[in-house]
Amino acid sequence: MKYLDEYRDGPAAKALIAAIDKAATRPWVIMEVCGGQTHTIVRYGLDQVLPKHLELVHGPGCPVCVTPLEMIDRAHAVAARPEVVFCSFGDMLRVPGSRGDLLGLRARGADVRVVYSPLDAVKLAEANPSRQVVFFAIGFETTAPANAMAVWMARQKGLQNFSVLVSHVLVPPALTAILGAEDNRVQAFLGPGHVCAVMGISEYEPITAKHRVPIVISGFEPLDLLDGILHAVRQLEAGEAKVENAYARAVRADGNPASRALVEQVFEVCDRAWRGVGTIPRSGYRLRDELRAFDAERRFEVEGVRAQESPLCISGEVLRGLKRPADCPAFGRQCTPETPLGATMVSSEGACAAYHAYGRHLDARAAERR
Amino acid sequence: MAAPLGACPVQIGQYDRVVLGHGSGGRLTHELITQLFVPAFHNPTLAALEDQASIALDGVRRLAFTTDSFVVSPVFFPGGDIGKLAVCGTVNDLAAGGAVPRHLAASFILEEGLPLADLRRVVESMRAACDEAGVSVVAGDTKVVERGKADKLFITTTGIGWAPEGRRLSIAAARPGDRVVVSGPLGDHGMAILSVREGLSFQTELLSDCAPLGGLAEVMLRASPSLRCMRDPTRGGLASALNELAAASQVGVVVREPAVPVRPEVRGACELLGLDPLYVASEGRMVAVAPAAEVPALLDAMRGHPLGRGAAEIGEVVADFPGKVRVQSSVGGDRLLLMLSGEQLPRIC
Hints:
- The complex is a heterodimer.
- Chain A is of the alpha/beta class.
- Chain A folds into 2 domains: about 1-300 and about 310-325, Rossmann fold (3-Layer(aba) Sandwich), CATH 3.40.50.11740; about 325-370, no CATH class.
- In chain A, about 40% of the residues lie in helices and about 20% in strands.
- Chain A is built from 18 helices and 11 strands.
- Chain A has helices spanning about 10-25, 35-45, 45-50, 65, 70-80, 100-105, 120-125, 145-155, 170-180, 195-200, 205-210, 220-240, 255-265, 295-300, 315-320, 345, 350-355, 360-370, and strands at about 30-35, 55-60, 85-90, 110-115, 130-140, 160-170, 190, 215-220, 245, 265-275, 280-285.
- In chain A, β8, α12 and β9 (about 245) form a beta-alpha-beta unit.
- In chain A, α1 (about 10-25) packs parallel to α12.
- Chain B has helices at about 25-40, 45, 80-95, 115-135, 190-195, 215-225, 235-250, 265-275, 295-305; strands at about 55, 60-70, 75, 80, 100-110, 135-145, 155-165, 180, 230, 250-255, 285-290, 310-320, 325-330, 335.
- In chain B, the strands form 3 sheets. Chain B has a 7-stranded mixed beta sheet. In chain B, strands 1-2-7-5-6 form a 5-stranded mixed beta sheet, with helices on one face.
- In chain B, α3 runs parallel beside α4 (about 115-135), α3 (about 80-95) packs parallel to α6 and α6 (about 215-225) runs antiparallel to α9.
- Chain B has 2 domains: about 40-165, CATH 3.30.1330.10; about 180-335, Phosphoribosyl-aminoimidazole Synthetase, Chain A, domain 2, CATH 3.90.650.10.
- By secondary structure, chain B is α+β, with helices and mostly antiparallel strands.
- At the A-B interface, α1, α2, α3, α6 and α9 of A face α8 and β14 of B.
């Protein structure tokens, strides 16, 4: 299939792996930022075929994973109301809040629906004027334009029964936070291809300049990632630190200005809490004041809902690349996709879920026995 | 980053109510069967977890017996409808056990307000499928429930058929060195249904593969006298079928991902929606395990049958990793293919 097969081609992959092998003379630690990239790495076993001294660590770029427990509890409080049709992207439904997940809430009678596009939620609101339709607007810069468009259209249409529960997060502040931590091990990043397709690449340049780390904007197919790794290794070996675009078929240097303009009209930057990580200054979006009428937190008065996190799992360290899923004693035992202890196990983008889905917990167990 | 490390919620435990994932054909379904139904009804025939019960009759023939309920939405979909599906599903469960399907019973649960024209269309489609499959509906039942208590109509079919004594196909019969074959591209049915679901319509010419497989199964059995087992990969897809087989036979299965036939439309839709075709249902395909020496003749025979033209060998049975299914990717790495946990949920981005 065009645009897929050529980026999954076995012989081409082997040639890139050989080139990486040749280029990498020393051990390096490279973080892939996005959950989608983590999935490809584990699904295709890229880490198994790379030189052993190259370590890939998994970054915080799983939007479902980093959505704070508090927001999930607020989502539950809203979705449980009888007048509400609660719409969400699919993998948010299984994220455990303080009292179970949204699927469990649906089994108890709540009207919870999976939508593929926030605009479908707007259509639902138009078609059901007697119901309150709420969309759970989460994600990175990638989902922000479509979510902004939903609010924009709801205002255009004068919909009184549509609102959004916003928990948007931004990539660059998270990278800065990772690099600023005393225990940081990351020496280069594979940058978030689809985020940059919207935002462009210029906001990563100050990060490379200040912290002297290469950032290679990468795609999501096996060859995209291998190519990104090769660029990162070459920079590391040469002592360079610059932003490179290895995903030029999707990312333009200035991103998508029309999308960005829309996002700026609807959202403004704010401090955000990241699940398992903590609050990062200016790392998220909230609705602009003039659009607060569409804010579900206000409309349903759930701003006061607070949640108590329990320090049982290590997802915070996994999200920051300090530990791997298999380092967690609960991984694949107490913590499974059926009974997730943390969000990194829940979302299909989460590092723990990726490792579990592709059986890495069984590999780890077999290794223990040997 | 001043991080309160490991900020995670306490374990929520198992669901205390039925969720949709219990019907996904994956791990939750499997748990319901093995932890509730099998212990409650406690007998070796049920505990074998085959797609059909095989009961000794007269020393010459064995009775194959199975039942299946159909709740598909929408009722009419590209390539079929709930009636055709209700016949094919049960016929295929019998055929997978090496039995010749013979008779069906059909129960209808109808929602008040269902247009009679729709019911007639469904019943006529069932009759056509029965003719194609060589079976007859010989008993039935009808119930009507209030509007809103069912989704248009649900159909349960129960089927019987005969298998010669001595023909014992079983998911517990696979041995290292055996090969895994499929009869054609996987996932057409699941993606054809998704393409017409409310809120998810995407344009495709994709048709459900829904078809009765009794004829194909007979051809396969003739070509491969030592055929170990067959499964129709419905809910839970190839992943569930192979995991059940690996567990029952206590063998490993290695699948070569590039060898698994999947139509470009199905792959494309799966890519867009964030789904894995190895978990998507087919309703007119057979997965079979055969000794390596019989595979060339088996594939030839399958490709000579209209429902097996796209037959392919996709992997082999190994002694390593008993109970596990491994998938070799195009770039050389491999991964375990687990049963689905809950429903396959679309990814956010």
